[in-house]
Amino acid sequence: MDNSHSAEEIEHEATNKPLMSVTTFDSHKITNSTVHQVEPGPPHEALFLVLAYLPLFELVAMSEVCKSLKDEVDKDVLPWLNIIAQRPLNLRLSDDILMKMTSKANGRLRSLVLIDCTRITNAGLHRVLQKNLLLTKLYVPGCTSLTLDGVIEAVKSLCQNHHSLKSLMLDGIYNITEEHLSTFSSYLQMNRTQQEQHQQQQPILYHNYTNLPTHYHEESNRAIDVEVCPKCSQVRMVFDCPRETCKGKRSQADCRGCSFCIPRCEECGVCVGSEEMEETVCKDIVCSCCWLQLRKCEFCNKPYCRRHAHQHSSSSSSTGFVCDVCLSKFIINPYDDDDDEEE
């Protein structure tokens, strides 16, 4: 035992690092071991290489780890050329924060994607765009504090005088009319080449779009995401149907329309008639085929769609779970209904 301590002391002096004695417990024996405390140092060089590829939320989080990473994030322009603000940042993003973020691009911002950023106003958006006139993509779906007049003014400033805006997303902005749509289209055509204008537009499928709206908008070769619904004549997102029997009807617009006119399966995007609509916990629509494949709640036998599957509670069963409704009703507050009846 003495020899062991002597060896540790010699090693400590040789390495000049502090030692910490650690006692390990297990079911058979108790052992003492020595751990070298590592001095804090700079981040690994590989971390600096990945900064340009991080989503916005992770990029902001990385800047708060240490001073060297914060300095690198602040001075490197590349991560800030394409800003995509979505959950969980969307509800926290204000005009001032957006201005601070976009200023890191030094006027070279190429894409600005604000998904459901309800605190962004016309004034805040205009301040950003005045400093970033080279923008090619402006996506503001669900930014309900923006007005149509404000967005039109923004698009106008980015399209005139040989500026570069080519792609626009507006779904969720209130009260868009055919006249507004025509105005947006006329501005965007200024910067699109003849080849881009005559490219065949790809169909947009509901289930793909709800999962990755910006990606599938760009894949569709469209300048604007919304259009006039052939069913109700309102300006909304219009979806195609992936069902084989419906593909031949597209030219007649029998199975093409907005989600208000044609209910669609959250899982596979097909049109769903009243006879094949199935119930889900999250109240989203699923077809019979997809309903059979989804995991069910062990109490009510209803599934979540995949988009809301994170809301369920875990279960020991490999095939089932407990939904939040049944968890509250039967497990957390099982006597509430009885108390209400007695009253």
TrEMBL record:
Annotated GO CC locations: cytoplasm
InterPro entries (alphabetical): 4Fe4S_Fe_S_CS, F-box-like_dom_sf, F-box_dom, F-box_LRR-repeat, LRR_dom_sf
Endpoints of the signal sequence: none
Residue intervals of the F-box domain: 43-77
Species: Cephalotus follicularis (Albany pitcher plant)
Name listed for the protein in its UniProt record: F-box domain-containing protein
UniProt-listed PROSITE patterns: 4FE4S_FER_1
